[in-house]
Amino acid sequence: MTTTLDLTGLDTRPSQVWGAVRLVPLVRDEPVDDLRLHARLYGDVTGLVEVSPRHAYVSYIPHGFVATWTGDGTPAAAYGTHLSTDGDPAPTATTDLRFHRKTARREATHRLRFLPLHLALEGYLALHFGGPSIAWEEWSQRAIRQGLSPRAEEAYVGADVRGLADALRVFEIHPGQCGVLLYVADALAAAFAVPHPDDYRALHPTLLQDLFGELIHHYATLMPPVPDFRARVDDVRIRSLAELRTAVADQEDAWARFHDTTMAGGLLHHAYTWRTVHRMGRFTLSRFLPAFRPKEENHIGEAITDDRGRITYLKTFRLSESQIRRGHLLSRLAAHDWHLANTAAGLGITEAQLGLRLESAGFGHLLRQDVLDGYRSR
After folding, report:
1. Distances (CA, A) of 267 to 46, 205, 297
2. Which of 65, 116, 143, 229 is 20 to 30 A from 205 in CA distance terms?
3. First to last CA, the chain
4. Confidence category of residue 21, pLDDT binned at 50, 70, 90
5. What SS3 class is residue 174?
6. Which pTM does this prediction carry?
7. Angle of helix 340-347 relative to helix 321-335, nearest 10 degrees?
8. Alpha-carbon span 126 to 358, nearest angstrom
């Protein structure tokens, strides 16, 4: 299924700025009462996820989310609570390596544990993971037998994004707030939304443990502070409190339109390919991939939607240009049954140029060495 992201039910509020970090609150008029989320803390350890009997996903996984829902639409309660002392969110006992079964796994009739963001990242890493669908002569035996295994990507933890910890600490949480859009140097880094305001208050600090791409880390390190968009009301035209309220509302509406159409346009105005991961009563957990448009803004992510298609949970990750390029090359190869000449023609380049692009993207090992040497010599 291919469709855009629809944030109906989530309203934009004025942004808050700290240095190069801009946080834009998302508020629900009506919270989703029959779906709740809470964090399950795993500590500062490496996680190994059994994706299939022969494949595993390894990453820094500090916590999981547990979704609890009801089957009859009555309010649900967040399952479980973790208490800590001295402000330390880490469990008292941790191990160097924690094993998980699947990135999303049902634990009870109305309870599902999933690994936030890693669900989406696993989907990106698994993109055409099997390798060539036809054993054309240019592909190496390793590509035919092992596909893209092992596949690796790099990201930065939120604690390493300059200014993010302070921004989250001083951030004023709005009444009814159920999400946030996070910008660094006014580049959209991530979107995060949950069903209920109480869930957001509990999960707000987990943004510091999320993963962010290379571009976002560099922007936070190198870019200057961003300006604050302040409302301006012409006091000459204001003659009553009613007119002042109207002017303030107009300013809020103008900001929301500017944000949703301009600042968040790279996330909201493009179609994504969705894949269902798990059905949860009237809710559906899915992950999505972009069309991998080179030199444009591309996001991957995961979402829980209700029976009307409205998003109740959302978490996204902005891909770097190199990650976009790898996704684009793999998608074009798969669209042409991994035939190099046909793929090159579709891209408007020569076969040798395509081979060198594959090498530059880190896929040179998929080609036979003599074929790659031939491309280099042309």
Report:
1. 30, 23, 8
2. 229
3. 41
4. very high
5. coil
6. 0.89
7. 120
8. 17
